[in-house]
UniProtKB/TrEMBL annotation:
Signal peptide: 1-19
Protein name, entry field: Biopolymer transporter TolR
Keyword Signal: yes
SUPFAM superfamilies found in the cross-reference section: DPP6 N-terminal domain-like
Record key words, sorted: Signal
Source superkingdom: Bacteria
Family: Belongs to the TolB family.
Stored Gene3D superfamilies: TolB, C-terminal domain
Any Pfam family hit: PD40
Source organism of the structure: Alteraurantiacibacter aquimixticola
Length: 506
């Protein structure tokens, strides 16, 4: 096969010792890997008919047919894609792709249309590494677009009105210039070949407006996502929003997610659909520190509707049958909820002094409203959350000189440091319901030690075993920060986490 000779001669390079075979706006095409059936590309007017064999574009190595050209910098590539022939493997793939090199294990990002109509942004972050994906909330309708902007890739899909619309989700993968960009087809069954037509193919350099301040004032789109913890670590878009949403929680039955937006709290089905506002009475200036009671019938909210703008903590019933109850009203501090003890009796919250720089962890009794200090020390202590057995309290703190995760007894005693990388800013430990894992958000050194701002590039979601048996692993990289995963966000069966990724409007 042609590519076998190319690969042997030039390894990772782009130039071929054989004559290139240009087709349309692409410089060359060839099989990547060694499929049993050789692929081909023909030009039909301005459309491309591509046939490819191969077992898959997935895992640690890909086998498919590719038509490509060299580019650098920001780029959008789009195409209207349709398979030829009925049936075939439901996982056969046709799509648009950016690839670092021509080896089967190259880093890449693509938008793949599957035979069963699934659309996904796939990516391999490093050479010889695994493949991950972000699946679209909607089915394939025709056109798709892969969008490289800076070190991030995004994707768009055709909406019901026939126009391309942002599908949500993003991943940070810094391609080196030059890279390859083009069209790809894989049969997913190496015993056969599959064919797809690519029409209205465009390669455009986006004109992106400069955003001088990416902080709280920046306008963003938001994507509510789920991620499998373990296995393929796939991400799935639940819904893409034109504006900002923050801080998803799960219902006890695993069927509903709750988030805040514009000061109000909303519920949305895990399978996607329309959002429904939760009745929080006159408390409609909620921040992103909210969550459900252990029995799943009540929600705690942190609201700042009063003229002094201090955050206060209240409890509401999800069915609206009981009046809103005020739990914490501290005239000298802003109070932000983060944890609810498994016995339902105690709220753990962050008390931020209104007239000083103190960030301490306090407790409030749900029945008596009595408050008391739990973790008080110089620096910042934040993000308290109880273990499922109620024995421990997890939090993040600067007491070691870095922002790290800690564990203490439930009364705040015997603190133990859990993360130790001084180059990271680790925030908001969330404990899986089975007690085995800590999911948390981690910022880079470009962030001030005590800050967790929105709209940052070097943001990672990480996973750490609660027993300390292994080092943290990176679940995914995204554009996000404040609002991404502030509050408890594990599914009841400990298999998935919910989070929010963002994209600047420009």
């Amino acid at each position: 096969m042609r590519f076998a000779f190319v690969a042997a001669a030039v390894a990772w390079g782009f130039s071929s010792p054989l004559a290139a075979e240009p087709v349309g706006q692409f410089d060359d095409h060839a099989d990547i890997g060694e499929p049993s059936h050789e692929g081909a590309v023909t030009l039909d007017g301005e459309s491309y008919r591509i046939t490819g064999g191969g077992a898959n574009i997935w895992g640690e190595a890909d086998v498919f047919h590719y038509a490509w050209t060299q580019r650098s910098g920001d780029l959008h590539i789009s195409a209207d894609i349709a398979f030829e022939g009925e049936g075939g493997d439901p996982h056969r793939k046709a799509g648009v792709m950016i690839r670092q090199n021509l080896t089967p294990a190259s880093p890449y990002a693509d938008v793949m249309v599957h035979g069963d109509g699934l659309v996904a942004l796939q990516y391999r972050e490093v050479q010889d590494g695994p493949t991950r994906q972000i699946t679209s909330a909607g089915p394939h309708r025709g056109a798709v677009r892969l969008e490289r902007e800076g070190d991030f890739v995004y994707f768009s899909v055709e909406g019901e009105d026939g126009a391309l619309e942002h599908a949500g989700g993003s991943f940070r993968i810094p391609f080196q210039a030059p890279y390859l960009v083009g069209l790809a087809v894989s049969a997913h069954d190496d015993a056969v070949s599959e064919t797809a037509m690519f029409s209205d193919v465009t390669l455009d350099v986006p004109q992106l407006a400069y955003v001088p301040d990416t902080g709280y004032a920046a306008q963003v789109e938001a994507t509510l996502e789920l991620m499998e913890v373990g296995g393929a670590q796939s991400r799935r878009v639940i819904r893409h929003f034109d504006g900002k949403i923050e801080a998803p929680n799960w219902s006890l039955d695993g069927e509903t997610l709750y988030y805040n937006s514009g000061g109000r709290i909303y519920a949305i089905p895990v399978g996607g659909g329309e959002s429904v506002e939760i009745d929080t009475g006159r408390h409609v200036d909620n921040n992103n520190d909210h969550g459900l009671s252990p029995d799943g019938t009540q929600m705690v909210i942190s609201d700042q509707i009063e003229p002094d703008n201090l955050s206060r903590i209240h409890i509401v019933t999800l069915d609206g049958t009981q009046p809103v109850r005020e739990i914490v009203n501290d005239p000298d501090a802003r109070s932000y909820w983060h944890g609810w003890s498994p016995d339902g009796q105690t709220l753990a919250y962050v008390r931020v002094g209104a007239n000083d720089d103190s960030y301490d962890i306090w407790a409030a009794d749900v029945d008596t409203r009595e408050i008391s200090p739990l973790v008080v020390a110089p620096g910042v202590d934040d993000g308290p959350e109880y273990s499922p057995d109620g024995r421990h309290l997890y939090f993040n703190s600067t007491r070691s000189g870095a922002m790290a995760l800690w564990r203490a007894d439930a009364d705040g005693s015997n603190p133990v440091q859990l993360t130790h990388d001084p180059a990271r800013r680790d925030w908001f430990p969330h404990i899986s319901p089975d007690g085995r894992w800590i999911a948390y958000i981690s910022f880079g050194e470009d962030i001030a030690l005590t800050d967790h701002p929105p709209n940052r590039e070097d943001v990672q979601l990480r996973l750490l075993p609660t027993d300390g048996s292994a080092e943290p692993v990176i679940l995914t990289r995204l554009f996000g920060g404040q609002g991404t995963i502030n509050v408890p966000s594990w599914s009841p069966d400990s298999s998935r986490i919910a989070f929010v990724s963002y994209r600047l409007k420009r």
